[in-house]
Amino acid sequence: MSTVPTAEEITLAVHGVLDPELPVVTIGELGIVRAVRVPVNAAVEVDLTPTYSGCPAVEVIRDAVVEAVRAAGRPDVEVRSVLSPAWTTDWISPEGREKLRAAGIAPPGPAGSGPVTVSLPPRCPRCDSGLTRELGFFGSTACKARYQCTSCREPFEYVKPI
Amino acid sequence: MADIDLPSDVRAIFGLRHADRALVLAQQITGWITHAHELDEEVALANLGLDLLGQARLLYSFVGEVDDRGLCEDDYAYRRSDRQFYNPLLVEQPNGDFADTMVRQLLHDAYAVELWSRLSTSSDPQLAAIAGKAVKETAYHLRHSGTWVVRLGDGTAESHRRAQAALDRLWRYTGELFEVDDISRHLAESGFAPDPGTLRPPWDTRVTAVLAEAGLTPPSVGRMATGGWSGLHGEGLGRLLGEMQVLQRTHPGVSW
């Protein structure tokens, strides 16, 4: 391994940090990484965007990013929180969505122009039935709601479109 | 560690008004945890409280930058007494029963949704960015509180009685939300924040619609309560802050 990591290596390291709450997806796949700048003679700069205002994982993610950049060979790194444009679930990549589904969490539908749009209920991540019902609008984290599949009867969580 | 002095910049005062609004309400709501009537609602209230706390934190950080004295979120949250808190009186009204809490939440959320919506076009880009996030979350809060008020108002005779009593108690705290003062006038002129008076018509429309569906009637109020925006509060806020700040005041400079 070369002693000086390339910008691409640093960027990949940042994008590859696992989300601490949903460790099946990376922060890159969740659309949390807004920018990675790798200057030669100054600190690496990473811009992250928080998902929800009160997301308690923000500090953990920030620490994980610093750790990842250091492990990739750059000890000098600054992480900034960028609020605008506001994070939207539309930024979750197709790979991220598939990983969520495989882990039993229904990925979000389109966010649309308003926060509460009329849309079809999520499909069951286990049996793919469209006959699901909402158990509760709030779940174990700020981003998820709770559903149940009326076909296979299994409950599951759903990442709310925002 | 002494109490901090208040900022002089009116933008920082505005920031404190709304950070305090969010923080006090978050602290109140989370008081329901382990006491709610069902687990579903505990989860909901915890989520609402978390969103509000997050908004408070973003606003306190914003105040810290505008105020430019090197103070952080914790300084603003833990080192001011009740006379230095600028939240509107509505959010410090007691949790009471579940109807009190949900009616208070409805009256608040209908206001917050409109405020955040207007602030997302603030002349201050950081404030606009905070608002851009908060408006989406607050729309979900209004969906929750609005649904509950309808269920309670249009529920049993008991739930209707309690919801109406809550509305009768809380209505006098709604006028303050739309008060105009020198600070708000100055900030409206620069496009930093909307004229509070202009928030009333959409608030009225939203609240009237929910109350109509809930079968609830606002009381006629002789005089609206006032004073919160300038630090004049009831004794309940002192108790809330006393509990919230006891750890930091007993062990100044404590950190995890």
> Low-confidence segments of chain A, ≥5 residues, pLDDT <50?
none
Compute the average pLDDT of chain A.
91
Terminal residue distance of chain B: 17 Å
Most extensive interface, residues per chain? A-B, 24 and 29 residues
Tell me the β content of chain B. Answer: under 5%
Separate helix tally of chain B: 9
Structural commentary:
The complex is a heterodimer of chains A (162) and B (256). By secondary structure, chain A is an alpha/beta fold. Chain A is built from 3 helices and 7 strands, in the order αββαβαββββ. Chain A has helices at 7-15, 58-71, 94-102, and strands at residues 33-37, 44-48, 77-81, 105-106, 132-136, 144-149, 155-159. In chain A, strands 4-7-6-5 form a 4-stranded mixed beta sheet. The longest helix of chain A is centred in the middle third of the chain and has 14 residues, at 58-71. Chain A is elongated, with a radius of gyration of 18 Å. Chain A starts with 6 loop residues before the first helix and ends with a strand. In chain B, 62% of the residues lie in helices and 0% in strands. Chain B contains 9 helices and no strands. Chain B has helices at residues 10-30, 39-67, 73-78, 98-119, 125-153, 157-170, 182-189, 200-214, 235-250. Chain A binds chain B through residues 50, 52-56, 82-87, 114-116, 135-140, 142, 160, 162, and chain B through 40, 43-44, 46-48, 50-55, 57-58, 125-126, 128-130, 132-137, 139-140, 143-144.
